[in-house]
TrEMBL record:
Name assigned to this protein: TMM8A factor
Family listed: Belongs to the TMEM8 family.
Chief location of this protein within or outside the cell: membrane
Keywords: Cell membrane, Disulfide bond, EGF-like domain, Membrane, Transmembrane, Transmembrane helix
GO CC, alphabetical: plasma membrane
Organism: Tychaedon coryphoeus
Domain of life: Eukaryota
Residues annotated as domain EGF-like: 455-494
Compartments, as annotated in UniProt: Cell membrane
Pfam families: DUF3522
Transmembrane spans: 507-531, 592-611, 617-636, 652-673, 679-698
Length: 732
């Protein structure tokens, strides 16, 4: 045999602490056919700075679709089927780098996904630039060992083969035809090269994660041993591996034989079904009945003489609506006839390779008036790769190499729903059949009609009122996940364990919005002291901060007067410009120079916020430059007057020192104390402290300007005139 090794690699990704599925970094690989060995090379590393500590990285694996994970232990939506993912932990302690290998023998061909993430996020809101987070990097590489000339086992044809040694197992594959109801594998004439009885182990199927349904068969001696499989995967290659359990030097000769039992539909019942029969690419075909027949290329004597249950297929049209959004429409109407004689089959095509990033929803509704037997139950199974064709005997919806999802409706419970999160890439089947509690003999002619609604959606129920459905991308692969808010959690934001009440949401909105009214005293002081430009800036900041936080709320207490992004930009711009004009006003510059700096600084701040809205230097840069200008101006004034500036100790004690203290406390709260849980009151404290500090720091009005004299401005009956005299100075 000729083996070929192949290597696939993807670029490293920076890991994030987990708070929702978008924090998990996804890697997407494709395993080729005839792969006999798969090896993952997982490389994790961290930075070398003092902020880097020991960390545990969790890595999840899954075949066919992204892994469904739940690191936070939250609840999934009702009717959702969840099977735990296969995962390993990689610890980064004293070592800067960790390399781990994961081997998978006889892996299933197709898409494989790896998701990696750090532990749960701490919840603290970090200001960009104040702290340097430690970088944790993760990279996944894939090595495959592929057999280029794997022997093909033909149905009904005995195939003699030789296992050279226990270290070199034998690999064979067989193609499972469409409509295969069962498969029988038989191993004959097992002898060693020393003409002794041999012991071999046969493994049928491939390994899939998180669950593997690989079937094992151990044959001892020269007697024949066989294995029967129900509902093998349709139109797929099935790998068979034979390994010797005997001595190392002895070769083993075996003879394999495989046969299929096929349930073919009969003639088409209508012209519409005939068109569907010709155009459908996979799955069962419509028909009024069926009979057992050998598969193509199979000898007649390999078919079991017993008659098994055939199938009644309903034509289904796949209608693509959007990205990861599909609706399945039944050509004969949403109501499906179901009988007790044979299962009714519906094909749900999810094999495009881009459908596994959403949620498959199947909803069944029983028409109670159509049930001919009161105590009958309509059993249903949703399965991938192959349908369940014996619902009367297999109530757990299991096929040869997979486990389906059971559903049932009856007159007492007429509706049932199933949600499959991230369904694997494959052909999915919905099988329905009428069952009776005392056996099929009781309801040999029972019938019912069931309305079927099936669709693929990016996020179930669009993540509800407390979540946002986000479309994520890894290279060319798209998948969706829910980002929850207001304390809600879970896969679809249905877990209300830590949810905020409506009263808490209203309180948070009121605190964050009404706390901006503390700018009113600063505006009044600015107007009283003739700082009208500064007062206009404070009014602008108060207005947009109020309505930005009214629109930024995660719950139901939300009001947006304009686009969210516009409100956020105007809020950030107003906050930085307010600090800029306040410090420049304290510098006591000449009017023309002050207003030039006002305009020029505002334009530069607007540009920097457009580049990086949350960068700390967008606020610290203008503040430090304005402080430099203010200190320079104060030194100039002090040197010119030959005493400290400002000269009044009352100005320092009652205005400057309280204002500076409030400003430093506000910066400390903003930078180091805010978390997701306390944001609504810590950020409100930030609003109050900043507004109060502005009122304290504004300098007094110029001495030559008199206060607003509103009575003198009135011209009622008498006009009070004032004689202004200019003093002229003669220069000689």
């Amino acid at each position: 045999s000729l083996y070929v090794s192949e290597y696939f690699s993807q670029s490293a990704q920076k890991l994030s602490f987990y708070s929702w599925y978008g924090n998990a970094k996804l890697f997407h690989f494709h395993v080729p056919e005839d792969t006999v060995l798969l090896r993952w090379l997982l490389q994790a590393s961290r930075g070398k700075g003092p902020e880097c500590t020991s960390m545990e990285i969790t890595v999840h694996f899954r075949h066919g679709a992204p892994p469904v994970i739940n690191p936070l232990g939250t609840r999934f939506p009702a009717n959702a089927t969840v099977r735990p993912s296969y995962n390993i932990s990689i610890t980064l302690s004293s070592a800067v780098q960790n390399t781990t290998f994961v081997n998978v023998t006889a892996p299933a061909a197709g898409d494989w996904f790896i998701a990696a993430h750090l532990p749960q996020a701490a919840g603290r809101i970090e200001v960009k630039g104040f702290s340097t987070p430690c970088p944790y990097m993760f990279q996944a590489d894939m090595f495959v060992l592929r057999l280029t000339d794997m022997p093909v086992l033909e149905p009904g044809v005995p195939m003699p083969l030789t296992v050279v040694s226990p270290a070199k197992p034998l690999h064979v594959k067989i193609f499972v035809p469409k409509h295969a109801a069962g498969m029988r594998f038989q191993l004959n004439s097992c002898v060693t090269s020393e003409q002794r009885a041999c012991t071999v182990r046969v493994l049928l199927g491939s390994i899939t994660l998180p669950q593997s349904f690989q079937r094992s068969l151990t044959c001892t001696g020269s007697t024949n041993c066989s294995l029967a499989l129900d509902s093998p995967p349709w139109e797929k290659w099935l790998q068979i591996m034979v390994e010797s359990l005997g001595t190392a030097n002895a070769s083993v000769s075996v003879e394999m034989l495989a046969s299929f039992t096929v349930c073919r539909p009969g003639s088409s019942s209508s012209f519409l079904n005939f068109i569907s029969l010709n155009q459908s690419q996979a799955g069962a075909r419509p028909g009024a009945g069926g009979s057992l027949a050998p598969a193509a290329g199979e000898a007649p004597h390999n078919v079991s003489g017993q008659r098994s249950s055939c199938l009644q297929s309903q034509p289904v049209v796949r209608e693509d609506l959007d990205v990861v959004s599909v609706r399945y429409r039944l050509l004969n109407g949403p109501s499906v006839p179901v009988s007790s004689l044979s299962p009714t089959l519906l094909l749900l095509n999810l094999n495009t390779g881009m459908d596994s990033g959403g949620s498959l929803v199947v909803n069944l509704l029983l028409n109670k008036t159509s049930v001919s037997l009161a105590n009958a139950t309509v059993a249903a199974c949703v399965s991938a790769a192959s349908p369940v064709l014996s619902l009367n005997a297999t109530r757990n919806c299991s096929t040869a190499f997979s486990q389906g999802y059971p559903l049932s409706v009856s007159t007492s419970s007429a509706e049932a729903m199933l949600i499959v999160l991230y369904p694997q890439t494959d052909d999915w089947f919905l099988s329905l059949q009428v069952l009776c509690p005392k056996g099929q003999g009781e309801c040999s002619s029972a019938e019912a009609r069931v309305t079927v609604f099936a669709y693929l959606t990016p996020c179930f129920n669009d993540c509800g009122p407390y979540g946002q459905c986000s479309l994520l991308r890894r290279h060319g692969y798209l998948y969706a996940a829910c980002s929850c808010k207001a304390g809600w959690g879970g896969w679809s934001c249905t877990d209300d364990t830590k949810a905020q009440t409506v009263g808490t949401q209203n309180l948070a909105t009121l605190l964050l919005t009404l706390s901006n009214l503390m700018f009113l005293p600063a505006i009044a002081v600015a107007v009283y002291r003739f700082y009208l430009v500064e007062a206009s800036v404070y009014t602008y900041t108060m207005f947009f901060s109020t309505f930005y936080h009214a629109c930024d709320q995660p719950g139901v207490a939300v009001m947006c007067i304009m686009d969210y992004d516009t409100l956020q930009y105007c809020d950030f711009l107003g906050s930085v410009v307010a600090i800029w004009v306040t410090i420049l006003c304290m510098a006591r510059l000449k009017k023309i120079l002050k207003y030039v700096l006002f305009v020029l600084g505002t334009l530069l701040i607007a540009m920097s916020l457009q580049l990086d809205r949350r960068g700390v230097w967008n606020m610290m840069g203008p503040c430090l430059f304005a402080l430099f200008i203010m200190v320079t101006a104060w030194v100039h004034h002090g040197a010119k007057r030959r005493h400290c500036y400002p000269s009044s100790w009352k100005r320092w004690v009652f205005y400057l020192l309280p204002g500076i203290t409030l400003a430093f406390i506000a910066i400390s709260v903003y930078a180091f104390m805010e978390t997701n849980e306390n944001y609504y009151y810590t950020h409100s404290i930030w609003h109050v402290l900043v507004a109060c500090s502005v009122a304290f720091l504004l300098p007094p009005r110029d001495k030559h300007k008199k206060p607003w004299a509103w009575p003198q401005k009135l011209t009622c009956r008498y006009q009070i005139c004032q004689n202004d005299r200019e003093e002229l100075y003669a220069v000689t």
